[in-house]
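Weekly puzzle thread! Below is a chain. First person to post its structure in token form gets bragging rights.
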Amino acid sequence: MYKLSRTRICIILAICLVGILFALPNFLGNSINFPKWWHPVNLGLDLQGGSNLLLQVKIDDVLKERMASIEDSARQVLRENKIRYQNLKAENEDVKVKIDNINSKTKAVSLFKKMEDGLDVVEDEDGMVVISYSEQALNQLKAKIVDQSIEIVRRRIDAAGTKEPSIQGQGTDRIAVQLPGEQNPEYVKSLLGKTAKLSFNLVDNRSTAADARRGKLSSGSRLISGENGETYVINRKPVVTGEHLIDASASFSEGQPVVSFKFDSFGGKKFAEATSQHVNERLAIILDNEVISAPNINGPITGGSGIITGNFTTESANELAMLLRSGALPAPLEVLEERTVGAGLGADSISAGITASIIGLALVVLFMIAAYGLFGIFTTVTVCLNLFLMLGVLSFIGATLTLPGIAGIILTIGMAVDANVLIFERMREEVNHGLSTKDAAEAGFNEAWGTIVDSNLTTLVAAFVLLYFGSGPVRGFAVTLAIGIATSMFTSVTVTRIIIQTWLQKYKPTKLPI
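Winning reply:
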């Protein structure tokens, strides 16, 4: 018997009401402060305007640092094993050293390979021992640097308060950043332009800057400049780095803005050991290869926390604290391209999308009413409900709607009536075969269901393929298409069935109006 149970009807109506509830914020305007769980659809860069940045990860700078570190390790290995060497020098992608004694060279090559995983150690035509990364290790290193950079960029942009940014890798060494609603990206660029590499290094009291300029500088020290124009000689090896920071915040000390920090257990232990062993010496606080402060160690600091002083304003202290909390970029970033989309252009896109949706809906409604009469009106109700459900789902999952997403909605409007067409045509065939009105209606829904699933499933597979392999606008189109297919199957079959069932029970027609 063609009848839905009361429980199933209540579940279907509840789903419709929840979908309409979540869709309502899209029609109530932006002046209302919505709770986090009840908010309108997020608009993409092309709809609300904003900024688009293309960043390049300067991987070569990281390789230079890695080679410098390998050079220090190689020097230490050679000295510890009393191997005579000449011309030890780090270059852009390798480290070279000359060792004349054959036995010593063989021993050095074996020791160099153990310094770090993924190192290739060979002898070139000039008899120099060359240390470099293998191709596999180099590719893994580059991929890791880009992935880390994307994560740090995401943290910084989130901390800056930008809503719904799109941050994606592009190629092997680039990052595409879209900032919807951000018309002035200079502040964000300033945040991304700072590597925020922090380290604490002891000041070398054995040498002065003047000695260093004359070449009297030990291999374990280096010359570095400070914010105030002073030049410092510091130990190359840091006491502790910013990698061990677990918190940083802006505060005040003696009425001046400072940055308070806290180390993890390992960093706190190393910091306590260094400050205990070097009382009355100076400790340089280095940010992005520049000394921002070099206070005197008056006593052991064993609490695992401290403060960074400098010429801070309240804003700069807050900014530095935020950068330290989000972590240091593994490599500097360079802005290759910057584009700004005006809010007016976004409003025009929305207006054009709404106009196209209304025209498409009107044409579909006219066709269905002309072809199926009263049942066409029933279909119109379900198509309108389908739009509400789509918006409700997009709002609930926090999806970002773009112009291609609107195209997916428009396409769904046309596809939403496919199931109804299959059902109604099946009803017409059953009536022609002599079935009663109720039996024909039941057969229409039951017999057409398999065809409806097959036709929508193939489209859904295509949508998931686009979602998996696509990026940016393609993914936006795929998301709205997939959601539209799911909601249209629900409304076309279940909601239409409730409406027709109610009509049949109330009017008991002897003939179907199709």
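Puzzle host: Confirmed. Bonus trivia for everyone else. The chain has a mean pLDDT of 85.
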